[in-house]
Amino acid sequence: MALSFVVFDVGETLVDEATAYERWEAEGATTFVFADRDLHADALACFGVLRERGLRLGAAGNMYAHHEDFLRPHVDFVGSSERWRVEKPAAGFFARVAEEAGVPAGEILYVGDRVDNDIVPALAAGLRAVRIRRGAHAHVDSPPGTVTIDSLAELPEALADV
Ligand SMILES: [Mg+2]
Questions:
Q1: To which CATH superfamily is domain 5-161 assigned?
Q2: What is the model's pTM?
C-alpha cells in the first residue's frame, strides 16, 4: 500500500518546546501559544519536500486546542487532544488521525519523538511510524526495527524504509 499521508506529532517533533518555554519566561508571557518561530528549523523545509512528492500532511498531538491555529496553514489537517477529547497513547487518537486523513491507516505515516506515546500506539493502530530522536525523550531507545531519524531533514529519505 502506497503512503499517502504523513502526520506529525507536535511537541519536540515540530516544535522546539524548551526554546518556546524559555522565550515565554523571558518575555513574561501570560498566554502560552506556539507560533511559527517555535518550529524546529527543519520542519517547513521537510513539509515542502514531502508535498513535492505528492504526499498530504497532518499535525496532531497531545496539546491544547489553541496550539492548532499556527499549524493550520502548513498542513491539510490539525488535531489536538483537547479538541478531539482523546489523548495519546489511546487507540482512539490514532483512529481519529485516520478519520481526518480519510485514507486507510496503512497509508499513513506518523512521525513522533516518543516511543510510548507515538511509535508503539501508532503501529498498534495500523499506521506506519518513524521515530525522531530529539528533545527530552531523546535518550529512550527505539524498539528494534523502528526507523529512527535525528532530524526532519532525514525524513524524505527514510520514507523508503517504512
Ligand atoms: Mg512529542
A1: HAD superfamily/HAD-like (3.40.50.1000)
A2: 0.97
